[in-house]
Amino acid sequence: MHTTAPKALIVGAGIGGLSTAICLAQSGWRVQVCERAQEIREIGAGVQLSPNGMRVLAHMGVDLAGCEYAPQAIDIHYGTRWLSSMPLGAQARRRWGAPYVQVYRPDVIRALRERLQALSPEALQLGCEVVGYAQDADAAYAIDAEGQRHRGEVLVAADGVHSPLRQQMLGDAAAVYSGNVAWRSVVERAALQGEVKAGVWVGAGQHVVVTLLRGGALVNFVGVVEQSQWREEGWQLRGERSEALAAFGQWPLAREIVQCSDTLYCWALLHREPLPRWSDGRVVLLGDAAHPMLPSLAQGAVQAMEDAQSLAHHLAQHPTGGAVHQDAIARACTAYFAARHGRTARVQRESAANLSRFHRRGLAALATWGPLWAAQRVAPLWTQQQLLRRNDWLYSA
Ligand SMILES: Cc1cc2nc3c(=O)[nH]c(=O)nc-3n(C[C@H](O)[C@H](O)[C@H](O)COP(=O)(O)OP(=O)(O)OC[C@H]3O[C@@H](n4cnc5c(N)ncnc54)[C@H](O)[C@@H]3O)c2cc1C
């Protein structure tokens, strides 16, 4: 009988994979993270972490070390007209028990890596591309591009939207182009004139989100625009400034950011319908590999963190002091799916619905945004409470 703790293999060192490694290490598993990149150079973009994500970070003991920005509110505009603001700051903390923050993605990854390093110094294996998996009664195996097999009691596929492991498991088609491309850039706050506040600007067929990072020293721009054709997929593809100006130049702040951006990136937004299952025996999907979603609720990374905590919870229901029987692992993975699937499917649906709401035209836009504009003028406090209440299901869980 072996006495060492069982081992979890995790494929992918994104926010989902690193969070899973931390949560499992905290509950007594040995962990190995196989990441195909030779070095982790996380995309220079912002990410919003809502209170449900911040609670998972606290559970993991991850400290953002003051590099986050906690907006007091998010302003909502239709065209250039201010409609209302969703109050955050102290209200978010009071209502949902944790702050709502905006962070530079490399800072999140660094904080997660440092925490994992403290828990399990040897866990991260870079330059390890996993091309498939196998399993038997005793273990699961991640097969890398050199044909080497890495053994673990459970194998977590946190390998993103194009997950080759999901494809092996479900044999499904690629994620679908949503008909929208996203633009992004990050600029120094000091390069911009006037006031910069976190906000969303919606309009016919496009919208813009501006967030602040690193205590407000950096400004993050994301613009989404409908486009029938899409070019290659990938976070590092550059776009032409003139195209970004044509799409978003109607908004003065967006125009200014685009004009002073050194580099603008542009890529296709993909999504897929909820999957019928996330596991095959000892192999289980997590994060974008399981449920890619459009960014219009800012939840992809947060849901991946929730997945991580949930999976570790379900795997911890089984003894970790010896060999873990295949059925016990399979049952834990099924229980994790049962716990998470309904919620992530709802977030996928609501993200898509939010995107189409943001992009409404003509009378449909008037019917959507007119009541918010009117309510804010007649009953501002009530309106803001309504905006908060709309997010209770998401941020309180
Ligand atoms: C414009 C935009 C804005 C967004 N804003 C937000 C936001 O504000 N808040 C939020 O919560 N979410 C946001 N998201 C979503 C979020 O970025 C993703 O949902 C999240 O990063 C998914 O994390 P993941 O770990 O599942 O996958 P990924 O981040 O894709 O990580 C997958 C990892 O697996 C590695 N990998 C892939 N294949 C292999 C392989 N074969 N072998 C080994 N390693 C492999 C990759 O190199 C990568 O490191 C946004 C997304 C977009 C597009």
Walk me through the structure.
The protein has helices at residues 15-26, 51-60, 89-96, 105-119, 164-170, 241-248, 252-260, 300-315, 326-358, 362-378, 380-389, 392-395; strands at residues 7-11, 30-34, 46-49, 73-78, 81-87, 101-104, 124-125, 130-135, 140-144, 149-152, 154-157, 176-188, 199-203, 206-213, 218-226, 265-271, 279-280, 283-285. Helix 8 (300-315) runs antiparallel to helix 9. It starts with 6 loop residues before the first strand and ends with a helix. It is an alpha/beta fold. The strands form four sheets. It has a seven-stranded mixed sheet, with helices on both faces. The longest helix is centred in the C-terminal third of the chain and has 33 residues, at 326-358. Residues 11-17, 34-37, 47-48, 129-130, 158-160, 164, 182, 222, 287-288, 295, 298-302, 304 line the site of flavin-adenine dinucleotide. Flavin-adenine dinucleotide is lined by residues 11-17, 34-37, 47-48, 129-130, 158-160, 164, 182, 222, 287-288, 295, 298-302, 304.
Task: Describe the structure concisely for a colleague.
The chain has 397 residues and is of the alpha/beta class. It contains twelve helices and 18 strands. Strands 5-4-13-14-15-12-16 form a seven-stranded mixed beta sheet, with helices on both faces.
Task: Name the features.
globular, alpha/beta, binds flavin-adenine dinucleotide, 18 strands, six-stranded mixed β-sheet
Question: Quick one: how many beta strands?
Answer: 18
What's the arrangement of strands in the largest beta sheet?
5-4-13-14-15-12-16
End-to-end CA span: 40 Å
What is the third-level CATH name, the topology of the domain at 7-43 and 105-173 and 277-357?
Answer: FAD/NAD(P)-binding domain
